[in-house]
Amino acid sequence: MKKLNTSPISGMQELLPREQAAFDRYKNEIQEVFRQHGFLNIETPTIERAEILFAKAGGETEKQIYRVVKTEEASEGADEALRFDHTVPLARYVVEHENDLTFPFKVTQGGRNFRGERAQRGRFREFYQFDIDVIGREKLAAAYDAEVILTLSEAYDRLGLSGKLIRVSNRKILTGLLEELNLQEVAGEVFRVIDRAEKVTPEKTREALEKLEIGTEKIETVLAFIEIAGARTAVMKRLREFGFGNEKFLEGVAELEEVLEILETQGIAEAVQADMKIVRGLDYYTGTVFETILPEHREVGSIGGGGRYENLVGLYSDRVMPGVGGSIGLTRLFFVMRELGMIKEQSEAPVELAIVPCSEAENEFCFQLAKKLRADGSNVDLVLSEKKLGDKLKYAATVAKAGIVIGENEVRGGEILVKDFTTGEKRPL
Amino acid sequence: MKKLNTSPISGMQELLPREQAAFDRYKNEIQEVFRQHGFLNIETPTIERAEILFAKAGGETEKQIYRVVKTEEASEGADEALRFDHTVPLARYVVEHENDLTFPFKVTQGGRNFRGERAQRGRFREFYQFDIDVIGREKLAAAYDAEVILTLSEAYDRLGLSGKLIRVSNRKILTGLLEELNLQEVAGEVFRVIDRAEKVTPEKTREALEKLEIGTEKIETVLAFIEIAGARTAVMKRLREFGFGNEKFLEGVAELEEVLEILETQGIAEAVQADMKIVRGLDYYTGTVFETILPEHREVGSIGGGGRYENLVGLYSDRVMPGVGGSIGLTRLFFVMRELGMIKEQSEAPVELAIVPCSEAENEFCFQLAKKLRADGSNVDLVLSEKKLGDKLKYAATVAKAGIVIGENEVRGGEILVKDFTTGEKRPL
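Output (structure tokens, whole complex):
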């Protein structure tokens, strides 16, 4: 009988050991790709001063921040909260440690972030994010935008998501368009409508634009514009056909072309598409923006994204530090992959080899044998339960891929056999 | 100029990238040893229902629990808090998922826990702990106590702490002694005095016992008893000389002997000592107890410990599940090792190789080269800054162990040279 409710609280991922093994493998793959690309790992605390988090949060996010209060000193007034992403703590870190860092600072962070979202299937209040960022001082070459996208692309491939599509745009293009149309004053609203365009019907998008009272002609231009998507050359041709002389627009087009060209030469052209619908609306991006989807499962939406920001640290320092970064939200991605049946490892026994002593008399020998096999890198369980041999073997076959039984004969130097629990075959150790 | 206070809040570890690389290596070493010993990794949420945590906390710990409150719905009344250790969430996990687990359940957890301690140098409010536990149903062989200690011992060795000393006792021995002395009623107080004995002078310990008004003779017996420490045979001889017929006492002595014998046969006798001063007072242990110290640095105190508990899940279920576990508090250990100058990696450049294009014209070639070298497992940075070659080389020499410069000649097929930044030597790629 349970005395207390022992389920994890809603919105928290809690996995069984075999699922966890798959999740851990994914974590490792992502981190290994990031490491190979020369990103340096850092960790910032889970708890930050609330003023640091609120300075950047705004809107929905602000309402979702978890504050923390010490039980003993609830009245002491330290205003602290749980981080909701890695970017805000990174900005603080970069300002705090600027003199000890080398720029461009190629940095990665992986860990749990927290948002008090409404409980909903597939929505997580605690979730793993794996971020990469390149932070410059004053300037940062556009080629780094491509390097970030390439790195994330490779990480997705390692997770078995080679069918993914990375959709890329540049905020300056849309900003330039709105300048051309003299719509600067409603730019925020238009961005928001475009950001939602994929989640609603085309009629809804048109209605939302009509509410802004910008006139039919401009509405048609915006609607036509956001339909532009495809391979580099085709998209570049269409963008240039607008004939805009707007500086922002041309800058955005040139940057987008540079990024796409690098991605092409690196052989991931078929996984990349320019797409004017991508704005990543509520974030602080100012140049390149991108997000990744699974084209065969568009219903799950974005499985990660990122972009370039003119200045990471404006709220914390007078310095100007441009950056480009991206993130993989692994908790949500893992949930999606499980739903889609894309995770195979769950059926595998987690331990390579179980050593089963027939009785306690063989314990010492088994400890020695385990030590030897572990020293060779194997993952070995030692079944020390004081149970019947049959029960011990049953346990071994559940946790391990193969097993060894050690009795008097083996201790005296008899041949040791390894039984493969899947095939039933035996082979000498 | 800084606009906000950008230091991490007190009691939080925040490392520079090179220190972080050392910390990460330690994390990996510990987790790899645990994996090789067949412990299955799980993760429980950082946030738990407060009632789950408070059911087990008690005393000092209870006052240190961080509660979390959603900004938006502070009044909604969900009473949630941050976990302060891994054992309480593990108890909940085992009850919740009992039917999906195989017992004995060999489990490991690694991650951040939280205690709102008073800020103090070397005390952390957020800290990494790496735990292993073996949980049985109804029964659990004493040999698992030895397996847990062996596993932790190996983890310490991998961290370069081969000079450590693991001090082992068994709570039943001291409990038996107090029964013999008819001191059951003050057992809790005596345990607490013994637990503090090493942090205060012998006079203070005597005074603390005198306050319990148990009579001089019993005080002398307790004081003499807790001085018993040393190798297995010597300690066993002294314990048996007391001639106690007390069942608990004899059970404790027998269990301690069995555990020490296994550790001896596994060749770690010189790193292990029986020591009657070890009680791990405030915890819920009932049998074997142990803690690890650095004998050359006794002033830093325990760097980890653990023990056996008769029932892990008593507060959450009517089931009886005995367990044995131990933990390495890596944040504190890392702090101590830095203080003692035991961490070497900090001086090493974190990236293996930096590729430096002379100009943007070589970017494409460099991206290709990086891809090839990364595919071989190397950790390669690509220096894409639009700076002078000299500045790019300076950056490369800071972040990487070696570097390659790519100019027109190399792109046209000329020999590519790798420069070792430490020795200054060049070799062909």
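The CA atoms of residues 32 and 113 of chain B lie 21 Å apart.
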